[in-house]
Amino acid sequence: MSTTKDKLIQVLVSHIKAGVNLNDLSLSQIATEAEIGKSTVYEHFASKEAMISDTYAYLLKSYEAILLEPISQKTFKAAFIEQLTRILTVMKDAKVIMDAIMNNTFDQIPNLKPEHQCLIETIQHSMGKRFEQIIKMAIDTNEIDIKSIKPYSKHVIQALISGILLQYVKNEIDMSEQAVCDMIYEQILKSIN
Asked: What is the pLDDT of residues 163-188, one digit of tens each?
């Protein structure tokens, strides 16, 4: 069950995804759409800027939950592709939001605040640990020889994953999602072994 604050944020997210100019959106309109009294909005947000800032945090936390959900797969390849699929899910949603934001001029969209940057760094750190666990699966099954892992392998893996997935999300790669994930998997094995 969503809290009142979550309902308000979800209304704002739906407007952002629809490309609505936030300057034309009032807290009163958001309250009406969330079926909440306007005075209740001020119990949760001091201003529209505060609501936008909280929306950043809300989205980052929801993305973190998706990215760090426990891995259900037991083999290296399946676990690796499961994680890539989660990253793609988040990237596709974030792209829609960022495209909507970038296609409008919003005077009231704040820069990322230190607490947002801290959330991003926490997610990055957790994702690094997640991929270490997945790579360990490959080492345990001898799919990757621990002796072949170079100090820079982590950076190569990150660059392959982020670069290829970004190009896919931007529709610059004409392949199915599964084919892209398989290609990344194969390139990771080649670069390490």
From this structure: 999 999 999 999 999 999 999 999 99
Q: Give the model confidence (pLDDT) of 38-87 as tens digits.
A: 889 999 999 888 898 898 889 999 999 999 999 999 999 999 999 999 99
pTM for this prediction: 0.85
The class level of CATH for 4-192 reads mainly alpha
Q: What angle do CA 65, 10, 64 make, to 5 degrees?
A: 15
Q: Which ranges of 27-150 would DSSP assign to H, the alpha helix?
A: 27-33, 38-44, 48-67, 76-102, 114-140
DSSP 46: S
Q: Label residue 79 left, alpha or beta by phi (over 0 means left) and psi (-120 to 50 means alpha).
A: alpha
66 in Cβ contact with 90 (< 8 Å): yes
Distance CA 175, CA 179 (A): 6
Report the 10 Å Cβ neighbour count for 1.
4
